[in-house]
Design goal:
The chain is an all-beta fold. The chain is about 0% helix and about 55% strand. It contains no helices and 20 strands. It is globular, with a radius of gyration of 19 Å.
Amino acid sequence: GCRTAPDAGTRSRPAGSEVEEVAAAQVPRRVVEVGVVRRVEDVEEQVERLRLRRPQAIAEPHVELHEVGPARAAVPAVVLHGDDGVSLKNDEPGNASYYYSYTRMPTEGRVSVGDVTYLVRGNSWMDREWSSSALGKEQLGWDWFALQLSNGHELMYYRFRRADNAPDRFSYGAVVLPGGYVSRFGFDQVELDVLDTWVSPGSGVIYPSAWRLRVPEYELDISIRPALADQELDLSFRYWEGAVEFDGTFGASNVGGRGYVELTGYGTDSAPRTR
């Protein structure tokens, strides 16, 4: 699917919402055949404007956002995750996905609530991942982090959790440097500690609600916390997904920023089999 976060756009729709594509620009893209693997080399298909509507009796929000075009801002580099865009999920044959990101897309638009309209500007993170495979039998769910650092770097990390709550060896991360250079790291190069939990008043499910994330190789040490505790969604399955804030250090410098976190597999009806 296609996900957009954290400052603008939408990664998943709340129940009852409707997403309408408006003035979508379909620019041809070039796909290269590499054996049995199809790799997106130039990803240029862009939706220029999204409109999110959530019908409600009171203060129905209305969102219009679009990417700032190349004439007004630098085109962000595409990040291909895994092996040139192919992201393995476990040892079972076929359990992989195609996965790429635009980690810092200049975005502007309007958010209207009732009679009040706000002009907004920020940087979006767009993910696109597609797959027909399933998680492995020993993989209960994932903790996924997408973080935009104040020093111009970005970090993506997903941890597959096993039955003993240990990180699966197919967990994966990447640091994106200014200019688009990507440095990837494995599950044994990151330390992720849960500092707090939150109990959903609706489902009773206990979710992690604060983390300390460290990547010693990059001298990265940050504390992450939700912008709002209650961001649980009950759609085709129940999970937690939403905005986070963080601060800490990167090398000898202080850093902060905003991002997005997705938590699945916490609870009996919270175990998706595909990512």
